[in-house]
Specification:
- The protein has nine helices and five strands, in the order αβαβααβαααβαβα.
- By secondary structure, the protein is an alpha+beta fold.
- Strands 1, 2, 3, 4 and 5 form a five-stranded antiparallel beta sheet that branches.
- The chain is globular and about 55 Å long.
Length: 199
């Protein structure tokens, strides 16, 4: 008989959800080892047929930040340049090429090879967005503060960081350590009855 998984302690739920916030000002250091740990946690989240279309670029060096800068909307430029690391969360339209390794017990590659690119984009974006959320939660679990955002020129990011590939950018996450004293008051959320039903 399987044993039920115990709920996380309240402190963990706070860190992951209830007191976690989106930070506009991030400082400190984020080591390469922490970024590897982050990915090694996030990769375990489920995707359809284990397709794992997520592709990440951790923009950390001054040279890389300088390449990212021109693609940022004005309101996101300063905070992104100041953040210790910015993750480009992207997805690979050629995800199915990895399926013989990722889903070896059947010919899953054949389910997707030859599909129109628009269909592949829907599939990859959906599953890549799931994985992007796992990245966000893994960062919080490791004690990092995060600043996820859109507000950038996707085409320019793709040209700069993914030229010659089928990889497309989705959104960005600034990573570092924030100061809760500098946060705005938290915005409300919808109640259960406004957003959900039990049938």
């Amino acid at each position: 008989m399987s044993q039920a998984t115990a709920p996380l302690p309240e402190s963990a739920l706070d860190q992951l959800f209830r007191t976690a916030r989106t930070h506009n000002e991030l400082t400190g250091e984020v080591s390469d080892e922490t970024l590897r740990q982050l990915y090694d946690l996030a990769k375990w989240g489920p995707t359809s047929a284990n397709m794992s279309p997520l592709r990440l670029v951790f923009v950390k060096s001054k040279e890389a930040k300088a390449k990212l800068g021109p693609a940022l909307d004005e309101g996101n430029h300063a905070k992104t340049m100041a953040a210790p690391v910015t993750a480009i969360v992207a997805y690979d339209l050629s995800f199915y090429e990895k399926l013989p390794y990722l889903f070896p017990h059947t010919d899953a590659r054949g389910w997707f090879d030859g599909k129109p690119e628009a269909d592949l984009a829907t599939i990859a974006l959906r599953n890549g967005s799931l994985q992007g959320a796992y990245v966000l939660m893994a960062a919080r679990a490791l004690g990092l503060d995060t600043g996820p955002m859109s507000g950038f020129n996707n085409a320019l990011v793709d040209e700069t960081f993914f030229a010659g590939t089928k990889i497309k950018s989705n959104f960005l996450i600034n990573l570092g350590h924030g100061d809760t004293a500098r946060l705005f008051p938290r915005s409300p959320r919808l109640s259960f009855d406004e957003a959900a039903r039990i049938l």
